[in-house]
Design a protein that fits this description.
transmembrane helix, MFS_trans_sf, mainly alpha, MFS transporter, 568 residues, membrane, 76% helix
Amino acid sequence: MAEPARADVAGRTPSGPQALRKRLHFYEDEAFDFPPAVRSVIPGAPPTPAHPPARRIVYAATSLLAGLTGGLGNAVVLANLPYLEGSLGLDLSEIAWLPVVYLVTNAVTGCVLVKYRQQFGIRSFCMIFLSLQVLLIAAHLAVRGLDSAIAVRAASGISGSALTSLGVLYMIQALPASHRQKAVTLGIGLQPLALLLARLLPTDALAFGNWVGLYLFELGLSLLTLAAVMLVRLPPNQRVKAFSRWDALSFVFYASGIGLLGSAIGLGGYLWWTNESWIGWALAASIACLGVAFLIEYFRADPLIDVRWLSAGTIVRWTIVTIAARIVLSEQSIAVVGMLRDAGLVNEDFSSLSWVIFLAAVAGLVVGALSVGPNRLAGLVMLAISLVAVAAFLDSFSSLSTRAPQLYLTQAMIAFSTTMFIGPSFVFGLNEVIAGGGKRMTSFIALFGMTQSIGSLIGTALIQTYLYFAQQWHLADLAAQAEKIAPMVPDTTRALAARYQPTLQDPLLRSAEGVAQFSQQILMDARIAAYDDVFLAVALLALATTAAMLLFFAWSWLRPFTAEAKAS
């Protein structure tokens, strides 16, 4: 169906160069009255009129830019987190606030942004949040410190949530209506590519001027995206009154609960759970705040977050599977990269692995988009999780000599699974929203944001915690073995000390270096063994998740037959 015509101020339909200019500026006056056939079922979503091929290409390019920008700035920080400590004069527990605050604000703001778009329109939605991020990044270039860095990451979390939505909305315009699920799969799958792409960026180009290059890169990317969404406008959505006075109260408790929960989980693995009393208090307070928020929402006629809908069996099962998937998918970004860095490697040393991972992720996104369909969603999710189980099990045989080439196959499998999983899982939840008339979109976005962001924090915390305990166990075991082979220990330390003979003339210093090297070898052996335990635990969790899904679908398939047998 063609888009409705528009007239200029003199009442004439534009033609020639004027028509071309209007086409390039897309829907600049928002004076369109779209027929019901192209309007979206979901309030706040733009209509989907027919577009010429050239416009669809521009929409696709804008979707790619917005989707990657939504996560690339934070991904570059996360990929270079160990190297940023010195530039900001922070320790590891302080620098860890940066990814945590991004994920917290990203999880919290999704549902509010949906209502904002419904009431104030897409144009305001785009301009305000992108402009906020640009201003804060520019301010951080002048004022360097932890406070300003946290403010930038918080703003990036908000704008990242907005840009993820824009990536989906622009991609929907880029493809015909018959390929709506493919468009959603492609749009939502762009952000996971950001972290993989960030590891491919040259560190030297970002680290100049005490890492000023990183913030200039993020500023330039945000300005480019702001210019793109100013020029390439979405069809204007029909505005409705979305906010109510009770939204503010419930959002305060909801945001406080998520903020406290995310901060405690995100920092617990760095500060350690029992070392800081505020972690326990934050966890307790988060339960209270979320309880109050859900209690308020439960009794509302038009809730911000529909608690009754979220407690339905289908949504609960979807939530459990999605969180479990986020935990097992953390194997790549936390465990494998951590193992390589513990071996003394930096991003450039395993750039070939980063390229393999990135290309596999692109392939997973394409395969997921081409395969997505109403009857294939569960199958794609199970396939993705089972691939992670196989890859993590193979990684559990890593050793001190394991380097990037030995990880090509397994990490390609996990990257493929990551991008193939997120699209079908989102579409599955979106279908539940559409089946209910689209009114529960804010509830679904709140849940999806929480499963992705808080799920990532939970995955990181679990891996860090289990890694620590496994390392301590292996250290004790190796120490016991060293006692059994005590006669061989002096020979080993002397052999290690002999390496320093050309540089150290003092025999006592050489002996001390030999002992230090021997201790370091034992520590690395314990560390690698602990990583193997983590990989095995991830494989078992992925296998258990897949088995649970298979059992549920088998039960669903057999239930009509058992009911019929009982009736007869």
